[in-house]
Amino acid sequence: AASPEAAAPALSPEAAKAKTLENMQAAFKGETNASARYAAFAKKADEEGYRQIAVLFRAASMAEGIHAQNHKIVIEEMGGTANPVTPEVSVKSTKENLEYALGGEAYEVKDMYPAFLKDAEASGVSVALISLNYAYKTEKKHEVLYKKAIAALESNKLADLAGVYYVCPTCGNTVENKMPRRCDISMTSGDRFTEAYAGYRYLTGRGVPGDDLLVVTDGSSTWDSLRAAERVLRREGLDRVTLVSDSYHSRRLLGVADEVGLDAGVSPSGAAPTVPELLRETGLVALGQVIGYGRMLRLSS
């Protein structure tokens, strides 16, 4: 056991806050890189014919994007600005990519997030604790999923892997095969979970080449997602879009699109809404039209 003299001295609250802000910047960079890296790994898995592994990588990419967005919000809440990140991506074989991903998750679970959580607890910054805990608990699940994928690849039993994953928009929790009733990390209702890359899978399944699709995984809300899409589309010289969503969500979707600068139309899909869904959506549209959808999101957060 370490002697008292060898133990690291406790940080003062001010030093702990400064350290936590530094940690959040590092976590934001790491999760942003991981999101881009896993998206590239998914493309490689598709090229090598490992569809189930590609699906896993895409779900993980989405989850890491949610973590990055949460960390960015914490940085801003602490009075900072998230440092720009240029993703660092190196793609090898799918087996090597899985092993790299597993190593990264293991480091985050064993070392990085426990240390960051300790500093955040000392700092008293509750939003940092929440964001870091969301990521830590999700990465523990990703570690298990990558171990399963490596074992399936080595034993040639890829059919045993999940064919679909559901991702919590609040914390990034990644669930195999069946949408949960409620997130076991953030308590988010299961009906808010997103089927990872559903649009991508739908289009590629109908013959659209994956290389012709531009996937944007940023954002854990309608406003954030469309804002992220607008930035990507603007770089491509585009601003007119067709959005696909449930019919009862169309009015709010058009309002958000207009607010972020998109010239949008909506192609409605899905079954008829329930009365509670209609009432909730009517209230959100009314409030968004009065105070703005972006402001409404910030207030709800």
Walk me through the structure.
A hairpin with a 6-residue loop joins strand 1 and strand 2. This protein is 59% helix and 7% strand. A 3-stranded antiparallel sheet has the order 2-1-3. It is globular, with a radius of gyration of 20 Å. The N terminus is likely disordered. The longest helix has 35 residues. It is built from 9 helices and 5 strands; from the N terminus they run H-H-H-H-E-E-E-H-H-E-H-E-H-H. It is mainly alpha-helical. Helix 1 runs antiparallel to helix 2, helix 3 packs antiparallel against helix 4 and helix 8 crosses helix 9.
Keywords:
globular, 301 residues, three-stranded antiparallel sheet, 7% strand, mainly alpha
Short description:
By secondary structure, the chain is mainly alpha-helical. Helices cover 59% and strands 7% of the residues.
What's the topology here?
Elements: H1 13-47, H2 51-77, H3 94-123, H4 126-154, E1 165-167, E2 174-176, E3 194-195, H5 198-205, H6 222-235, E4 240-246, H7 250-260, E5 263-269, H8 275-291, H9 293-300
Parallel strand pairs: 4-5
Antiparallel strand pairs: 1-2, 1-3
Helix pairs in contact: 1-2, 1-3, 2-4, 3-4, 6-7, 8-9
Globular, elongated, flat, extended or rod-shaped: what is the shape? globular
- SSE string, helix = H, strand = E? HHHHEEEHHEHEHH
The profile of the biggest β sheet is: 3 strands, antiparallel
User: Would you count the extended β strands for me?
Assistant: 5
Rg over alpha carbons: 20 Å
Order the strands across the largest sheet as they lie in space: 2-1-3
Any low-confidence stretches, pLDDT <50, length ≥5? 1-5
State the helicity in percent bands. Answer: 55-70%
Contiguous helical run count: 9
> Which structural class best describes the helix and strand composition?
mainly alpha
Q: Report how far apart the termini are.
A: 43 Å
Share of β-strand residues:
5-15%
What is the average per-residue confidence, as pLDDT, rounded to a whole number?
A: 88
